[in-house]
């Protein structure tokens, strides 16, 4: 798979089929994850794959409990999802959250049917600097295998129960960074269309200064190396109206 296709079409998939993921596929996903950059090559991570139906049945109620706690915080206006990001549209954010809740409800209701739960643990990770590149590598590798997934942190709301159930040596400092629910998706891959364009969220040389290039639409599957893309927007009106990106 072309790297740009993977980067542009890997999105969070919460509606997953129960079909098992072959072990060799799982191995390729994790082998890609452990190649991710990490500070000093200290590899302060541990990946715990859960596919045992009995363990998933015990985790299911904990996931729903953790998710309920998350939405209690959301309803109270707390947490990072309660409001749009800086400059974001309130109504668009509300619609996004509505769709996310719908797909999240599906995941919660069918949690025990998810074929693979991949727990990612880290130790002394400086805010996730080492573990999140590995998580993203795992999701990209999964995309190349036709496997979808979603990263969720709701089980951190009930971390003590999860640690006990999974035998995590938390006393040694191991902390759950996230859990990936992985499976073959019921939905379709596609480019995220609800992103603010580059020039609205980027600056050059000083905060708030113009980035200098207009990117009015996704550059993939158009010509990713669009002619003149590096030219300042004022001198390249063809880029501003999108005509420099050939379909």
From TrEMBL:
Organism: Mycolicibacter engbaekii
Phylogenetic placement of the source organism: Bacteria, Bacillati, Actinomycetota, Actinomycetes, Mycobacteriales
UniProt KW keywords: Flavoprotein, FMN, Oxidoreductase
Superkingdom to which the source organism belongs: Bacteria
A Gene Ontology molecular function term of the record: oxidoreductase activity
Protein name: Nitroreductase
Domain Nitroreductase: 10-184
Pfam families: Nitroreductase
């Amino acid at each position: 798979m072309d790297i740009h296709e993977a980067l542009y079409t890997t999105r969070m998939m919460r509606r997953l089929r129960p079909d098992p993921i072959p072990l060799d596929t799982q191995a390729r996903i994790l082998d890609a994850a452990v190649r991710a950059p990490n500070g000093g090559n200290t590899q302060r991570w541990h990946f715990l794959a859960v596919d045992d139906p009995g363990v998933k049945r015990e985790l299911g109620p904990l996931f729903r409990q953790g998710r309920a706690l998350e939405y209690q915080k959301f309803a109270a206006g707390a947490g990072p999802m309660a409001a749009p990001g800086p400059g974001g549209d309130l109504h668009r954010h509300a619609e996004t959250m509505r769709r996310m809740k719908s797909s999240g409800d599906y995941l919660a209701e069918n949690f025990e049917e998810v074929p693979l739960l991949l727990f990612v643990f880290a130790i002394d990770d400086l805010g996730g600097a080492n573990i999140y590149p590995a998580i993203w590598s795992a999701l990209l590798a999964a995309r190349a295998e036709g496997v979808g997934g979603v990263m969720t942190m709701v089980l951190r709301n009930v971390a003590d129960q999860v640690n006990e159930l999974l035998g995590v040596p938390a006393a040694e400092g191991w902390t759950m960074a996230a859990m990936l629910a992985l499976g073959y998706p019921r939905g379709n891959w596609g480019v995220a269309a609800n992103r603010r364009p580059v020039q609205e969220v980027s600056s050059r040389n000083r905060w708030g200064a113009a980035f200098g290039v207009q990117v009015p639409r996704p550059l993939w599957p158009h010509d990713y190396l669009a002619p003149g893309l590096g030219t300042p927007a004022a001198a390249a009106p063809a880029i501003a109206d999108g005509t420099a990106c050939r379909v």
